[in-house]
Amino acid sequence: MSHAFSPSSVIAISREVRSGEADPLAAARRSLAVIARDDARVRAWSHVMPADRLDAMDPAGFAAGALAGVPIGIKDVIDVAGMPTDFGVPALGAGPAAFDACAVGLLRAAGAIPLGKTVTAEFAFRTPGPTRNPHALGHTPGGSSSGSAAAVAAGMVPAALGTQTGGSMIRPAAYCGVVGFKPSFGRVFRDGMKLTCESLDAIGWYAADVA
C-alpha cells in the first residue's frame, strides 16, 4: 500500500495551509481517496465522511490554527457531530451525534478536520473489531483503539484519536509501528466520550512520528 502521508505530514500540512500554499481541504480529499482505495483490506473505519459533505465545507474554517487542514480519525467511542457513535456495536443504532465531544471541538478550533470514526473493540474492551494490521493483514492491530492506529499506520490519515483504559492506546501503537501518546489521566476532557471506566479512561492520539 502506498501512503498518502509522510511521517512529518501533520506539521507540513498545517504549515502549507497557514501559509496559503495549500487548499485547506486538500489533505482531507487525499485521505478520502486512500481510504476508498485501501480500507476494504485494512478495515480501519466504521464511518467515513462522504466526499460531497467535505466539498460543501467552507475551507476558511480550516485555514488557521496549529492543525490547519489536518485530517484526523476519531475512535468510535467519541462523539463527532453528524456521525454515529456506535461504541463498536452498530446494533445499538445510536444515530448521529448532535454535538462534538470536547476533544473533537478543540481539534476543530485548531483547524483540524475530523474525517470519520475508526473501529473499536465492542464497548472498547470486548470482542475485537474487523481491523487488520496494515503491515501484515493476517495479524492483529491490537486493541481496543485498533482502527485509529491502523489508519495512521496505513497512511490514511496523519493522526487519529484513541482511548485507553488499560493498554488500548499503547498496544495498537506498538503492534502497528506508530507513535501512541496516552496523556496523564484527566489532562484531556472526556465530555462526549462513551466511558468504559470512570477512574481510568483517557483520550490520547496517534501519529507517524513524535514531532
Describe this protein with a few key phrases.
single chain; 211 residues; alpha/beta; six-stranded mixed sheet; 27% helix; globular
Strand order of the largest sheet: 1-3-2-4-6-5
Major pleated sheet: 6 strands, mixed
Structural class: alpha/beta
Helix content: 25-40%
Backbone shape:
globular
SSE order, as H and E? HHEHEHEHEHEE
User: N-to-C terminal Cα separation, in Å?
Assistant: 24 Å
Tally of separate helices: 6
Rg result: 15 Å
* Mean pLDDT over all positions: 95
What are the segments in which pLDDT stays under 50 over at least 5 consecutive residues? none
Count of beta strands:
6
Percentage of β-strand residues: 5-15%
Structure explained in plain terms:
With 211 residues, the chain is an alpha/beta fold. The chain is 27% helix and 14% strand. It is built from 6 helices and 6 strands; from the N terminus they run ααβαβαβαβαββ. The chain has helices at 9-19, 26-42, 51-55, 102-109, 146-153, 170-176, and strands spanning 45-48, 71-75, 113-118, 159-164, 179-181, 202-207. The chain has a 6-stranded mixed sheet with strand order 1-3-2-4-6-5. The longest helix has 17 residues, at 26-42. The model has no long low-confidence stretch (mean pLDDT 95).
Give the arrangement of secondary structure elements.
Layout lengths: L8 H11 L6 H17 L2 E4 L2 H5 L15 E5 L26 H8 L3 E6 L27 H8 L5 E6 L5 H7 L2 E3 L20 E6 L4
Parallel strand pairs: 2-3, 2-4
Antiparallel strand pairs: 1-3, 4-6, 5-6
